[in-house]
Amino acid sequence: MEKENFKPDGFNEILDELLNDIAPSKEEEMELKEFSEKIITELYAEIDSKKLRSLIEDIIQVGSTDRNTNLKNDYDIDIFIRFKKDVKKEMLKETVLKIGKKVIEKLDGKCWIEYAEHPYLSAKIGKYDIDIVPCYKLNWGENIISAVDRTPLHNEFLKKMLKKNNLNNDVRLLKKFLKGIGIYGSDLKTKGFSGYLCELLTIHYGGFINTLLGAQKWKIGEKIILKEIFDIYNLDHDYKFADFKDSLVVYDPVDLNRNVAAALNKENFCKFIFYSHQFLKNPSKDFFYNYYKKINENLNNRKEKGKLITLGIKRKDIVDDVIYPQMEKLQKSINKILIENNFEFLRCGYYADDNMCYLSWEFLVWELPNVKLKIGPPVFNKEGVDNFIKKNNKYFVKDCNVCAYTTRNYKNIYEVFEDIRKGKLKKKITYPKYVSPENAIIFNGLYFHDYQLK
Amino acid sequence: MEKENFKPDGFNEILDELLNDIAPSKEEEMELKEFSEKIITELYAEIDSKKLRSLIEDIIQVGSTDRNTNLKNDYDIDIFIRFKKDVKKEMLKETVLKIGKKVIEKLDGKCWIEYAEHPYLSAKIGKYDIDIVPCYKLNWGENIISAVDRTPLHNEFLKKMLKKNNLNNDVRLLKKFLKGIGIYGSDLKTKGFSGYLCELLTIHYGGFINTLLGAQKWKIGEKIILKEIFDIYNLDHDYKFADFKDSLVVYDPVDLNRNVAAALNKENFCKFIFYSHQFLKNPSKDFFYNYYKKINENLNNRKEKGKLITLGIKRKDIVDDVIYPQMEKLQKSINKILIENNFEFLRCGYYADDNMCYLSWEFLVWELPNVKLKIGPPVFNKEGVDNFIKKNNKYFVKDCNVCAYTTRNYKNIYEVFEDIRKGKLKKKITYPKYVSPENAIIFNGLYFHDYQLK
What fold does the segment set A158-288 form as a domain? Predict the structure, then answer.
């Protein structure tokens, strides 16, 4: 091992206790392994019986359960059926859905079709959640044909590296830590760290604590290149890597033109640095267990507050990855109106449960007099001045501009939200397809305490 | 005449009516001339009787009444006693006070001593206000010994130029126009155009309307060099003049290192451009008669207003030129506190009558919740972060900074003003010598309508 997996005093006990709680038992591990092998065996048998063996390279298990980096009670099994490169895409889909369905039913499971870039089969057998995904078998450095073709290569690389340095439990600690502070997941709701990113970071820094220590030196736009990349692709050390504008850039060993940390937003990048620092200074298991909820509760349970207003919108039957970006878009659009009308908020945020979308604001200024200052053109712009005073009769010169007092459109935020829910601001606000504020409910207060306003 | 004194259609009638009203009658002019000549004759007689003739070069009348650029009912007579350059300053003072007093008393007037850079005699005889000022007689281009030495040269230059181009009444129109829009006077209360500046501009542009038209092309930092300057000093046209940072630069023909428009502030510079443009578009006598009061009334009599608060401070027996800068300083200092505490105002201003100083504000935001957002250091600054969270327990990460909610010092502006009048903010506010807000009275409303808030 090149890097010592650093665990300073005071951490060992905590980390051991944590692992005891979060790592699956050997029995669990074995059981899962046996079950996924059984599925693979059945898939091969079905393929042979259908005489489709010639289309297929192999059937493999991938994912964190295969790599021993999953957390306890994670029963996800990912099976990839890898086809030969000359097989048509249509054929991949058809084969997997047919063969898969047969096998799942044979094992007394239920299954349905899911769609990512191309369809795959999702199934439930007992406590296990199974995905059976078709892809092409690629060699290192080959261009992908479908988006999921990278996954088996990721799996291969990680397995080798994690085993070599015995880092499986370190990945688990990092994942759990990120979960605790609410930034685990690269989905559009979380915009945090993906599992794959956790594994690469753990490999790069050589352990969990080392990763946290490493992050203390990060700056915005931090670039991380695993040294293995130079060996794999036989690159010089002055090789010019692709340029990314993200807060954190981690080059994918499987595809150097891909930033594994692209989904991570700047705030979550900063949160990781901040809470890592807190944890390193004051090691405690607290950080690993819903710590973000405690932070939010601490913030929400302030004695002194601004005015809290929540817009409640009935949720359509649409997934988080669509709903959350639309909520964000709507809130940004409403924020513009609020700022335009001089209503100042301390923080805002959004959250969706199964039935409703909630957009909340904490206001610092929610009532204003009816007067508004309009700043016109500089006195040097004669045409602009003439037009301005034609429209505004309470004008005067302030500094170098002609200004005027006019009547404000909204005296308090309720009037703004009333107009929004009545659809009167459609010209100024983007009403997203699935999160329309028309007929929304206006609540006083936060309504929920487990989402973060910022 | 090189420049035509341009008076477009629609202006002649207005300007003639105005002149009828504002220019002194021929009788008035004659009467004043005779009276000032009488004073000069008496001064010579007294000097001769005291055998002081050898100290003195001459005694002359200067000022707008001498140049025929004064407005009606302006009975100011400025007499300058010009001494030989080898006479000691002490002697100037002594002689003028002694001789002057004698003459004034002989003419049944009252007199007293005034102090500018050096003392002079001020007097009242009937309706006339007389200043008798000692100075040295200089030739063109010679360095001044005392500040007032320039005045006789100014007078000589202006008289010649105004007479040559028959511009006396144009100066009167410009002065009255500037009075009307409230920016006539180079004192620290007004920060506008001096009489001398009006005369130079009228000469430079060749008339009143031409000056207004000329101003329409002004930009911040406008530089005006009278062409006569090149002749007087025999300068090349690429001569490098002194650099001034003022909004308007008008080189003094008597001293090229002096900007005659130094006292004019940017806002008044812009007001001149703005109201000139208005007048040229819609010629009306209204502009010449307390137009600024109508503007202020129009602004103050809005139906919709913010919260108006006035701080009333007992006035010490101190001149405007001292009181006004101190009021300005105090208001700026209080504004800083208001902004720091997130109270937003639309406009503010100050005004003093004989008994009181008034500082007023029109507030847009005058009440706030008790919570305050404190923005701490970026998460990259570990030491800063550690210090910040030691002091603030409701912390969180926002964008790249650690932030916290704390309790606001002031929930409304009355609390701020209460602390100011109790002297509790002495560390944060500059309490000027003569305008101390301690024990000030806090009024609701504007209290006065004839001063401008901006």
Answer: Poly(a)-polymerase, middle domain (1.10.1410)
